[in-house]
Write a structure and sequence with these properties.
Helix content is 28%, strand content 40%. The protein has 187 residues and is of the alpha+beta class. A hairpin with a 2-residue loop joins strand 7 and strand 8. The protein is globular.
Length: 187
Amino acid sequence: MKKVVLGLVLIFLIGALGIIATDALIISNAPTESPKVEIRALAADTHVVSTVLIGSTEVQVRALVESFGSQLQVVSLLAPDAASQLERQYSDFVGPELVQKWMANLATPLNPDLLQDLPGRLTSSPWPDRIEIVELKALQPDQYLVTGSVIEVDSTDRDVAQYPVEIKVSLIDGRWLITNWVAGAYQ
């Protein structure tokens, strides 16, 4: 399970449910369960933690991509163990075929063009902080195309760079996973 903050969903639920404080938003993407998003929150009138399930496919896909975006800074693409970092950090978010493709690209001699297409950290500063989603479009009931930007920040937490991404998300064995990643040039 990965923790994520989805501001718009939380703002909506705060107003609709009378919530005064949120505890966590958790994605359950386990292969044995149907995908779901839970919000655990403290209700204003009872001071009891309640759980709200959100079954919207769009919310699940958005949460997956945003959670993945928060992991990008953890994988240092120039580290000697970059392939194992990539496999360890991304396997909950990315389909196995795409992980294997990225690991193979890391095994080739250092090529800046191939590294640009790999999600992760290239330098000590700036580094990828998040993915901001611009559009989420259903291609099929079990497949979505997400367009957005990877936002990079510096040590002062300022947004200093970004590049566009197109991400295909597919439902595989009951789990939403990223199955394609196309990164554009820095802007």
